[in-house]
Amino acid sequence: MSFINSTLGIVSFALTMPTLAQQATSDEKEITESRYETCDGQDSHCVKNIEVIEVKGEKLNPISMGAQGVYTLDRKLIKDYRFGNGNLNDLLGVLPGVQYGESAYTADQVSNIKPAEVSIAGADGRATAYLIDGVSNNSNLNNVAGNTDRNLLQDVAGHSQEVFLNLDLIESIEVYDSNIPAKYGNFNGGLVQAQTRKALDKLSFGISYRQTADDWVEYHNYYSPDFDGSDTLENAVFQKRDFSTYISAPVTDKLGVVAQFQYLESQESLEQLGSLRLQEQTNYNGFIKFDYALTPNDDISLSYLFAPYEGNYFDVNALNSDYTIEGGGTNAVLTWQADRSWGYINSQLSWRSSENSKNANSAWYTWLNTAGKNWGEYDGSINSLEGGFGDIKKTQETLSVKQDFEIPLAKVLDGDYSLSIGYALEQQTSVFERLEDAIVYNGSIISPMIDCAGYQFDCVETQLYSSVADLEEELGRPLDLQNSDDFLLYQSNIQQTGQYFQSRQVTPKAKAEAQVNVFSAYLENQLEWQNYSLTLGFRYDYNDFFTNHNLAPRLRGTVSLFEGDGKIVLGANRYYASDAINYKLNEAMLPTHSEVRAIYQHRPQQWQASLTNTGYRYVYNDLETPFSDELTAAYRHQLLGGTLELKWLYRDQQDSINRVRGTNDLGEAILYGANSGSSEYQRYSLSWMATYDNQHIECNVSHASNTTSAEQFDGETRTYINSNDYFLNFSYDDNELVYLRSDNYELSSRSVNDTYHLITRHDMELEKQDFNRPIIANLSWGGDFGNWQLSAYARFNGAQDVVYATGTTKSVSEATSICDGCAPNRKEYPVYRIEKRPSFWLLSGSVKYSLVVARDYTMTLSFEGENILNERTYQVSPYTTGVELGRRFWLGINLDY
Prior knowledge:
The chain is mainly beta and 897 residues long.
């Protein structure tokens, strides 16, 4: 120790744990006492007038004490609440108002390695901004219809995030639901920012392995009321393995490196029409990051992340339906952070590339369930499905540069002023390439006399086990089909009934490319004066597709009460959406067209273009950018060593882009973009969170409502000639239409009146009311007790109306003939059903035990349980047969140095 002058100042930080009687926690320190003491005269360093300054540092908990509506999950919370796959989204549910999509609770989620989609502030997953070290991780290749049906005709089921970041990589997570600073933009939901771990100043490394399997899962099998008991459900046979390793080390006194690799694999045997088949998914996370201290005031970091995903799937209700989805991506980020006497600078250059592609059979057949094509009997369907929807390759590449400046300004009238400014430039290129023609056959015609004339795939001829002559020879007389015995004999002799398709829809091989350039800038001025703070900012965004100049105000402020123990938070903000490249890509895509063929003398003729249906294109002209206006008010108070928060949040989304049917001057069917859509979201939440010396606890309850305007829907798809006959009022793709069944229960007559609505999948996604449970409650806790680490997490999901898949189809006949020589056209569409899903509780927990196995080596054994109480999740409707997930476990082992 060296002394500069005769007075020694000793600062002792008493970072004491607040007890229940102490004031609550925040992220600030307070000087509680300053006094002078006389040091020991025998000490050679002793001088007079030693000042002892005692500072009380308060424990952090997730609730912010500033004006921003942010919740922070540190490394401790991340480790305690890691359940299941260990994805980022799996952790967010402990926070108020965060809702999962209903697919998060389905039975196939136990083997799925994709993160569940989440909603923050009422918006769907793709409206939330995801950042990794300040760089966007949002994918514009996602299709929300993939949340309902993974096997899509015109697209590939994706995810709102480009890469699935493993929790082992993350140091902290910030989740914003309101009062989001102006430096963040291009979203109209919430914001999730993950900070990756930095290199340590000493060597550390580790290896871990976790596993779950079907022996550690309980399934609940439920059967429909008309189940005859013949074919009972078989539980899936699966295993899921998670292997990861990391190293963090100093390379020199100024350079450090951290690297991590994770491999997550799932193998599941699913029943496909009575046979068990293997379905596989894999996800990799390879990450390396260098941190270099260029000067005492300049830090440079360079990181590279490689995270591909692959899933090999099949449709459980269709033959020859294998398909592979490849996703994930890569990013590289260069960051320079500089401290100067006049302020702080953060400069960043990043490159990202991601993929969302599918390999599948190129033709889809909806056969009638007859002899030879009767595998549909397995699930009681009138149809037998076969095939796939063709190969599609989608890629997204993004190059961006940005700079942020934080500048403290001079004091004025005892007020502290600071200025935040910044800008960003981004170029994003997306490519949609259909690698082959995709053909959808619908509306099979039974024709025992059909002669396929060389058509091998879309036409089958009648085949008999024995010829009619052989039967007559066996009978010793001519076959008489008017005789019931002869008729039954002939029916049992049919090996395959002749049938053919007279209409099909063809999506041609094509490639579409779109590029969008984006410029953003922001400015925020913050004033802190006595017990008040006020932040006023603006954000400007421009892209060269919509060519709109968007200016979003951001206003937030606080008032401190009760000597700093209480704080009122108010805010009014606007957030603009940013998925322009999706619309530009849709415009560039070629439409589907219909083809028909006639039958002449029992032989199918050549396919020819239909005059009644030529497909549709997208056109987006003169559109405004969708935005969401926000009002929020909150009160936070320090209570029982933690922070109590009462929050009201209101979002009014305007200028949402809806679809309007029409035609252009050439008579082509067009879906025009319009700004007629809107929605409203409102939430009340009550939360309390606290962190103590060796424990932490978080609890919250939220009541939310979310309404969507009628203009957002496509609406009626049919025009009726009379009460029974109709024709489609637009050139829809066959795979785009579904039946939605609703029931009206009449108690007096004890009857059910069912109504079937033929709607688009776009409307079904809106009807589904995903992320819209009115009441959500969470209670979570974690603690360290010597070698033991314990945690528990309980979640209540309130009841709501949802859409169930029935696994059946409904047949309809159109009023018009599609060609001369064609039979009346009939098509099959899948049926979904609206039902009430009851409320349910889920309890998860983990137990970890750590022990030193050698010098500086620690081994940790872990046990994780989900749905420990084995509760129902009501994913199977009361009228269908299906499987729900019950209790399930993970076991793991870690070795760390």
